[in-house]
Structures
1.
Amino acid sequence: MSAPEVSVVIPAHDVAAVIGEQLAALAAQRGAPRFEIVIADNGSSDGLAGAAAGFREDLDLHIVDASAQHGASFAR
């Protein structure tokens, strides 16, 4: 597999209930350059990683720990 041309970074905190909607939309992309998804988990306590894990087969998906400081700016 070749390296991705684009990284889509999603800063996230307690969005397990809705992350599937975003990931499904990204998985449905056609004609886009090769991309990876980076979910920067900013200290979620709602099972975010588990909710996103089902998309690993369809997406080049990475979940990184961004919980050292709270806020979207740090997560980005």
Note: The longest helix spans residues 19-27.
2.
Amino acid sequence: MNKSLQYTRPGFRAMRGVTLIELMIVVAIVGILAGVAYPAYQEYGRRAKRAEARAHLLDAAARMERHYSNTNQYTNSLATANIGTTTENGHYTISVTVGANNQSFTLTATPSGFTDAKCGNLTYTNTGTQGQSGSADDCWSR
């Protein structure tokens, strides 16, 4: 009896490994999955960074309102209103622009260390107007 065939069923050849075609099919499938998953992963990361910026802008607006209630004017200094110049993880840089007679403000969050072509800079004003410099409409809702 042939030792290499003693463990196979009658009519079947013994498997001896993986063919090159099978390996190439697996590589193609992994490539397709990576091509779909990686951009989705990157967008998820940008959305998380935007959420951090939105939270910081809302907190900064509350601090600006608190300063206004104490002094009857907004300040153009983030330090005076006790507002950090970057978000918690440093993904956005915060700036403030004060309007005429210090009676209005616009807070701006600018991406730092990455680009966000979809939303760009996020803005928030003393009237509660939310905006962005990019073309997307859902930057404040997602």
Note: The first strand starts at residue 92 and ends at 98.
3.
Amino acid sequence: APADRGLSPLPGSRGAQSHLLLPEAGPDEALASLPHGAGRKRDRAGMSDRAKDGDRPPRANPLGNRIICADRRMAAEEAPDAYKNIARVLADVEEAGLARSIARFRPIVTFKTAEARGR
């Protein structure tokens, strides 16, 4: 995410808070860039394969948010365990002096819909 245009979001997941970052390093130190999330630890196809017919629909997670999605496989793609640990990413960014979190946000709802290509 751009680090030379002011505040920058650091999105979490359905199972982790998101943060608003204030860049602190100069553009040359951070290459004018900050992470835009933790990244996936499991691919979408592998996660959607976990949602077999007959599985329970997704429930609220420990943060209390819900997901709205008609297709369980698509909902599984965004499961919290599909993503790496955002807290570790934030700690690395802050320890390196690149940015600091000035606000955090708890996810309330995830809305997942089919893409235009027919999925």
Note: The mean pLDDT is 82.
4.
Amino acid sequence: MILSFDQAGDLLDQMAEELPEAVFEGLNGGVSLLPDTVLDPELEDEVYILGEFCEDQMGRYIQLYYGSFAALAGEENWSHEDWERELRETLRHELTHHVEGLAGDSSLDRRDAEQMRQWRRRNK
């Protein structure tokens, strides 16, 4: 099933409201659901980027990409529960990048990089 952009946004809003306000401190740009489909520039047509934690001249913010979620949902025949799980995991993953960044920790960045190295080795 493919949720509409608005349905996915409503789910994301509910999930964000379930979390303690403290995890959003310093996230001046908040969390946005964008309509885009984003492919990893190094692995185009193979890996969708579901979300990103960004820190730049605009501040600190999280972007989640509805089009990437919808593309995977179509390829993998997601249920409503799959949408909930993937949105929740991605939101929490990106918030972890934010919180670790505030603490000067890059553990999740290193784990992400290692997972991508392993994926590339398996899929070459």
Note: The radius of gyration is 15 Å.
